[in-house]
Amino acid sequence: MAAGPGGATVERFIVGAQKSTNQLKVVLAKLLPAAGLGSRAGAAGSSGSAVDALLSDITDSLSRALASLRLGALDTQRSPWQSSTAAAATAAGGGRRRSAPRRSGQRVRTDACRMIVLQSGVQDSYTWRKYGQKDILGARFPRSYFRCGRKPGCPARKHVQQSDADPSKLEIAYFAAHTCDDPPRPSSSPHIVPEPVSISGTPQKNAAAARLVPVAAAAPSAQRRTGQPSPLLHPVPDLMAGGSDVPIRTAGVLLPVAGVPAALSSAQHDPVSADDTTFTPSMGEEQAELLFIPSPACSQSELLLTEVAKVELQGPPVWMEHDVEDDDEPVTFSDFMVPEM
DNA sequence: GGTATTTGACCGAA
DNA sequence: TTCGGTCAAATACC
């Protein structure tokens, strides 16, 4: 969702401001412990509440600004995806062979486009197969393309791209609904408890996205390639060295950022494979943790790597979905689909 | 040998 | 002409 050179820059500034605000909050909390900074109870001194309120306002404003910026970016990108005829959307044919020219409208993206934010340990239960990777103009990292790997005819697609603003985040867009009879499988993993935390966008219209669920354990069969450095991997930013478990690869192996071998870090970049999504052939099988994609409504705390790491290690994974179809309507918690466990 | 990923080429839309 | 999305041969792994 690169918003373009300019947009990316502004976004970086906003994200930076959010981080600074968070840090300020921490500092003030230490300096004004008696004031009860951060305490909603209100028992604390009024000064603390006032500071807290101001910080909250700043945070909220920054989040809104970021959301607006990103929504705008999404709008500009959505256009091409949905410009073609719907019929050809999933019938994309062609390929290299001239004898079998692909039908027009191959690029059609009439399905609801949804951006999703996942955190550690959260994955959808579908199996995805990577079918391509492309360098995107103006984006620092390439975009990876995945299709449903469960059923050949399933039109579900997923695009994963590492965020320009924050390489530690992955932006995942889902297209089309799954037609394969493979509902999300219940997760037995105790640590995976999807929980919507951000509200922005509109009610989901995409069945596929609605079916996203955290996946507990990786399927053995899907791990076949585990251990093999993926060429898609790209260098992990220093900021990731904090120990977060953000997966950075794709094909098959999710690697915690902190534990990325040097060899992998220097390997060819693959944002996604990231996707958390990283995506591997089967997301459901990846253990990764991952994906932290800031959504337009992503809260300040969610933008902080330290916070993310904390959540990954201590708290339940957070799911955030953002339907970019209708940017005007606010979304409520009820709009988020809570994957069945 | 089977399956999944990689990657250059192809295609249509803008 | 450029660019994003997809295909499919080549390659890698189990």
Key terms for this structure?
elongated, N-terminal domain of TfIIb, alpha+beta, 27% helix, 7 helices, DNA-binding transcription factor activity, disordered N terminus, 6 strands, 341 residues, disordered C terminus, six-stranded antiparallel beta sheet, DNA-binding
Description:
By secondary structure, the protein is of the alpha+beta class. Among the domains are: 7-30 and 52-75; 113-175, WRKY domain (N-terminal domain of TfIIb). The chain is built from seven helices and six strands, in the order ααβββββαααααβ. The chain has a six-stranded antiparallel beta sheet. A hairpin with an 8-residue loop joins strand 3 and strand 4. The chain starts with a helix and ends in an 18-residue tail after the last strand. The protein binds a DNA duplex (14 and 14 nucleotides) through residues 79-81, 83-84, 92-98, 100-107, 109, 129-134, 136-137, 143, 145, 147, 149, 157, 159, 221-222, 224-225, 227-228, 230-232, 250-252, 280-282. Pfam families: WRKY. Residues 95-106 have a biased composition (Basic residues). It comes from Panicum miliaceum (Proso millet). Residues 82-108 are annotated as: Disordered.
Into which percentage range does the β-strand content fall?
5-15%
The neighbouring-strand order within the major sheet is 2-3-4-5-1-6
Provide mean pLDDT, rounded: 48
Category from helices, strands and their pairing: alpha+beta
Q: CATH topology of the domain at 113-175, what is it called? A: N-terminal domain of TfIIb
Instruction: Give the N-terminus to C-terminus distance in angstroms.
Output: 30 Å
- The tally of helices reads 7
Helix content: 25-40%
Shape call: elongated
What is the element string, with H for helices and E for strands? Answer: HHEEEEEHHHHHE
Name the CATH homologous superfamily of the domain at 113-175: WRKY domain
CATH second-level architecture of the domain at 113-175: Single Sheet
Radius of gyration over alpha carbons?
A: 20 Å
Subcellular location: Nucleus
GO molecular function: DNA-binding transcription factor activity; transcription cis-regulatory region binding
InterPro entries: WRKY_dom, WRKY_dom_sf, WRKY_plant
GO cellular component, one term: nucleus
